[in-house]
Structure formats: C-alpha cells, structure tokens
C-alpha cells in the first residue's frame, strides 16, 4: 500500500514540475497472433521454409476463425503444400493464392490488396527475392496502418542477415524442432520489435504432416 502511494505521489510531483518522462514500453506479448501484427509491416525469416509457413499459417487460421479474409502472395512457381495447410484447419476455398514473378510484382499486388481494405492479413512469400525499395515499403506501411491490416513478409535468410528494410516494425526468425514421433514444435524468436523491444519468443506444436513441419 505504501509503495503504491509513494509511486502516485512521485508521478504527481513529476507532473507538477513539468518533467518529461521517457516513453512507456508496451508489455511483452505472450503470443504470436493477428493482434500483434495488425497495422504493421512484419518480416518472418528462416534459413529453411517450413517453419515460416507454419508460423504464417497460424495467423491465417486465426483470421479465418474471426471471419476475416486473408490472402497469400507467392513469388515464383512454388508455394505451400495445400494438403498440409488444409490439415492444419485452414479453409483453402477462402484463401486466395496469387503467384507473381518477382518481389516488385509482389509489392504492387500487396499495394492493391491493402488499398482495398478487405484483408486482415496479406502474406508476401518472397523467398530469396526480398528486395523492396524504401519508397515501396513506405507506401505499404502507410496502407497497412490505414486499414489495420497485417502485412507479413516471409523471407529465406539467416538471423544475422539484414532485414528487408528499416521500416519493418517487427521481425522474427522461425525455427522448428522434433519433439516426438509425429510431433514438432515451431518457434518464433523476435529479433526486432519497435513497440515492445526484441528478445521474446513464442512457440506452438504441430503434427508432423509432410511439407508443413
């Protein structure tokens, strides 16, 4: 009780003296979810592919459970393995998949999708082709904020590799490890978080279906 009063008195004194306090950091989240990414430009990287897909699909699944549309934009001719994604619970009939030739086309597609305001999350599966110029990033960031949409870019790189750009609000590295005969755990280690600070992580289990985990 005394400590609470002391804290209140100190806050009042600081206010009266006109002392500026430092910015308050938001509490560290306990989950990797749609609420965390909404309105933000996010990057999820991995040296492989399956861990990123598992972590991204979990957000798509959450959006679908809320009745909010999601869309997947893939660079190149390959993308996730549909039977595995369906096995995770995602309704493939409600998940449009758009395939483009390169990162520039992916960015233009994301611009159009975000501008519509129709999607809770836009996933850009960029792979190794992940060069986005700052003006392009700036436009996408503005649209994501305006429509409170999550823009999640999946890239293939190691944690020491630089991010797509300085405008990325949150960046995580995805990994996966086997925990049982047909059980795997995927994990997201947060390397950068402009709102809450880096250093936290989230993990979840998945069944070892071929391709997804």
Brief sketch in words of this structure:
The chain has six helices and eight strands; from the N terminus they run H-H-E-H-E-H-E-H-E-H-E-E-E-E. It has 213 residues and is an alpha/beta fold.
Please compute the radius of gyration using only Cα atoms.
19 Å
Order of the strands making up the biggest sheet: 3-2-4-5-1-6-7-8
Low-confidence stretches: 1-7, 19-29
CATH topology, by name, is Rossmann fold
What amount of the residues lies in strands?
25-35%
For the record, give the distance between the C-alpha atoms at the N and C termini, rounded to a whole number: 50 Å
CATH architecture: 3-Layer(aba) Sandwich
Helix content: 25-40%
The helix-and-strand class reads alpha/beta
Order of helices and strands: HHEHEHEHEHEEEE
Overview of the structural elements:
The protein has helices at residues 2-17, 34-37, 50-65, 82-87, 103-116, 134-147, and strands at residues 41-46, 70-75, 97-100, 121-127, 150-156, 170-178, 183-193, 201-207. It has 213 residues and is α/β, with parallel strands linked by helices. It has a single domain, classed as 3-Layer(aba) Sandwich (Rossmann fold), CATH 3.40.50.300. Strands 3-2-4-5-1-6-7-8 form an eight-stranded mixed sheet, with helices on both faces. Helix 5 packs parallel to helix 6 (134-147). The longest helix is centred in the first third of the chain and has 16 residues, at 2-17. It is globular. Mean pLDDT is 83; it is low at 1-7 and 19-29.
């Amino acid at each position: 009780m005394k400590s609470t009063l002391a804290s209140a008195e100190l806050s009042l004194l600081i206010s009266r003296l006109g002392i500026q306090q430092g910015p308050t950091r938001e509490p560290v989240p306990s989950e990797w979810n749609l609420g965390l990414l909404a309105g933000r430009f996010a990057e999820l990287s991995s040296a492989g592919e399956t861990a990123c897909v598992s972590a991204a699909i979990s957000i798509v699944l959450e959006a679908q459970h809320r009745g909010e549309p999601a869309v997947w934009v893939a660079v190149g001719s390959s993308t996730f393995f549909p039977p595995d994604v369906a096995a995770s619970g995602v309704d493939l009939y409600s998940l449009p998949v758009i395939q483009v030739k390169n990162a520039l086309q992916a960015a233009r597609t994301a611009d159009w999708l975000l501008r519509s305001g129709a999607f809770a999350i836009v996933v850009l599966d960029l792979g190794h082709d992940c060069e986005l110029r700052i003006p392009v990033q700036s436009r996408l960031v503005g649209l994501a904020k305006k429509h409170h949409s999550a823009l999640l870019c999946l890239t293939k790189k190691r944690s020491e590799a630089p991010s797509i750009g300085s405008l990325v609000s949150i960046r995580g590295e995805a990994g996966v490890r086997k925990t049982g005969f047909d059980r795997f755990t995927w994990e997201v280690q947060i390397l950068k978080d402009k709102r809450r600070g880096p250093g936290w992580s989230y993990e979840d289990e998945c069944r070892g279906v071929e391709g997804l985990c």
